[in-house]
Amino acid sequence: MSRPAGDEPKKASVVALVRGLRVLQCFDRPGAELTVSEIARRTGLSQPTAWRLCGTLIDCGFLVKAPTGSALRVGAPALTLGYAAIQGQDLPAIARPYMAQVAARMGATVTLGLSTGLDIVSVDQVDGDFVVANRPVGWRAPMTSIPSGLAILAVMPEFEREKILASIATQDPEAWPRRRDRIETARAQLEADGYVSLVMMRGQYAAVSVPLIEGDTSRGRYWTLSCGGLQSQWPPEALTDAARQLKDIRALIQPAAAILGATAA
Which of 36, 48, 67, 241 is 20 to 30 A away from residue 201, measured at CA? Predict the structure, then answer.
């Protein structure tokens, strides 16, 4: 269940530093080049503010001018920081600190899952106030039965998804229409809201999930971050809050996941 806002101490933040970090986060793919106008649009900052922040980051070497045109790209110091952060780590190691933050804030269990065939396997888990019985790390569930599997199916390229759906339909033809409807609902929700939610265990348990792709969609691995708890303690606003936090984590670690996949390849 969500913690009352007053339970957490207020933290002082340096606005200029926060804005500068938001500028750097705009460069979310290898080799990205952006103009100051594009950076201003992505961050929601005014053009003059974006110019001042970019100028400071250029002076410090964290941004450099691209060889051609007026675009900017990430400089060596930023690349060094990124390399130091990701070197020798895998996706579970990168995700776990953020999972722990959400579990502490929400009082709910946060799980990192991986798609394997027609199932989802839990790879890591940070327990909250409510723990599902008989679900230690390593549990396996059909993709269509939980929001994490539905989130992965929703984000897959169509050719890959159709191949998996054909196998699912063959397994249990009678249940297929219901499962197909659930998948289509998940696709629509992911497109509209950026996450997938589902009530399970005969209405007792609710969860939300967001997908992560390690590498790219042509040859990547599909992961998912999920957060859940007792439905009686999770009103709609709590589910929405959990989904927002998972989406924030995804925005932070998806670029690293893409780089991990490229490095492994």
Answer: 241
